[in-house]
Amino acid sequence: MSATASRPTDPGRATAPRAERFARPLLVAFLVAAAVDLAGLLAGLDAVHLVAKPLLMPLLAGYAFVRGGPRLLVAALLFGWGGDVFLLADNDLAFLLGMGSFAVGHVCYLTLFGRDRAPAALATGVAYALVLAVFLVLIWSDLPAELRVPVAGYSLLLTAMAWRAGVLGRYAAAGGALFLLSDALIATGIAEWPRLPAPDFWVMLTYIAAQLLLALGVLWAARAGGRP
Fold this sequence. Notes:
The protein is mainly α and 228 residues long. It contains ten helices and no strands. The chain has helices at residues 3-6, 11-20, 23-43, 46-66, 71-86, 92-114, 122-139, 145-164, 170-190, 199-223. The longest helix has 25 residues, at 199-223. It is found in: Membrane.
């Protein structure tokens, strides 16, 4: 028996290239589902949105998984999927459950970003804190009373995630900022502020871009030798 034949096979090394063959199809499927969802929202086809939206995060999570992404990234995306599904129902309980699922996802992101010991930019943190404070002051009286405290707590967690995402570079930082913008658009809708035409389209566009950029930022940092 040769030395090569007698050497034990590393299962991880053997299966990783095999799994990565599915990375491109999963990413393409995610982009197609995103395009279909956004087109459905622009056309006012609610049935298309109901079908396409729940496909988005599982496809992106599958892509992250076969690319060897950290478990916390996959978990964050799947909790985002939970939030997506809950928010398809139009009632306060579903909104709170969806917000809770997204909040757990943000905790996953924060834990993941915390593994990188690089300091987040203090100036960016101050800017985010000021924007959050001003936004909450302006919107507070227009929010339903029972949603004020949950929205404030969730907004603080989301802002912390968006700030900390910057440690992984500009793509993850842009993803965090877009996530913040997407949820701000939802909050203004709840407060019944004036909104852009086709408001759900803009919410989903910024949300889809946010999750994709966060996922790519984590994966690229890992490939470059970063902590995640």
